[in-house]
Design brief:
Layout lengths: L3 E5 L4 H12 L3 E8 L6 H9 L7 E6 L33 H16 L3 E3 L15 H14 L1 H5 L5 E3 L7 H10 L24 H12 L12
Parallel strand pairs: 1-2, 1-4, 2-3, 4-5
Helix pairs in contact: 1-6, 6-7
Length: about 230
């Protein structure tokens, strides 16, 4: 029987590549997305439209509202920075977001009987978020095996898989292209137009465009101001 894996899927470049990698590794991917009050909610519409096309056996959308806490340019009335990636953790960091996401993914994995959770975090070409680092992933994996019935009873050990964590954005794009990923069906922008047109200036757009340029490829998405 094909093993199941839960894949965190935002509709973005990294998570879509991660979904393709999970399938290529022999897993049956179950995609999980989150409607958490993010201002860039267009990405969720992309995820809903394309999850099955991208290879997901099922697609679960979890709905909660981090706007109640704010603290991020993605969940509060704070301008999304457009000046490029700096050395400090940017205001687009959402407090505890990956911990919340992984907790939901862990719960669904336990229900599905899946012991592998894929998340497209990256520690090279990224914005410096603390919950994208290898030490964070290792700590969450340890916690997952302490906090679950399956882990305590020894019926299975949970693995948090991060196939992109040590790759540059260009390497991620090249790997996705080899797997047949259509990056025209992804979305990365933190501050898109009402129609979903990427701004070309936020950290996420800059990193994406830099990755395509370094891979010697053209990003298939249109931009307001690339």
């Amino acid at each position: 029987m094909q093993k199941k894996a839960v894949v965190l899927y935002s509709g973005g470049l990294d998570s879509t590549t991660c979904l393709a990698m999970a399938a290529d590794s022999g897993f049956k991917p179950y995609a999980i997305s989150f409607s958490y009050g993010q201002r860039h909610s267009y990405e969720l519409e992309v995820a809903k439209t394309n999850a099955r096309h991208m290879g997901a056996a099922e697609h679960l959308v979890v709905d909660f509202d981090l706007r109640l806490m704010g603290g991020s340019a993605l969940t509060a009335d704070i301008d999304v920075p457009k000046q490029g990636v700096g050395s400090e953790i940017p205001v687009t960091y959402v407090p505890a977001r990956n911990t919340i996401f992984l907790s939901f993914a862990l719960g669904w994995a336990e229900v599905l009987g899946a012991f592998d959770i894929f998340i497209g975090v990256n520690a090279l070409d990224y914005s410096g978020y603390p919950d994208c680092r290898p030490e964070y992933i290792a700590a969450f994996e340890a916690m997952a095996n302490l906090a679950t019935k399956a882990g305590v009873e020894g019926t299975g050990g949970f693995r948090i898989r991060t196939p992109l964590i040590s790759m540059t954005k260009a390497q991620i794009i090249a790997a996705g292209c080899e797997l047949g990923v259509d990056y025209g069906l992804t979305h990365s922008c933190y501050d898109p137009s009402p129609e979903g047109l990427s701004c070309g200036q936020c950290d996420s757009c800059r990193l994406r465009l830099k990755g395509f340029a370094e891979a010697g490829l053209t990003d298939p998405l249109p931009y307001q101001s690339p």
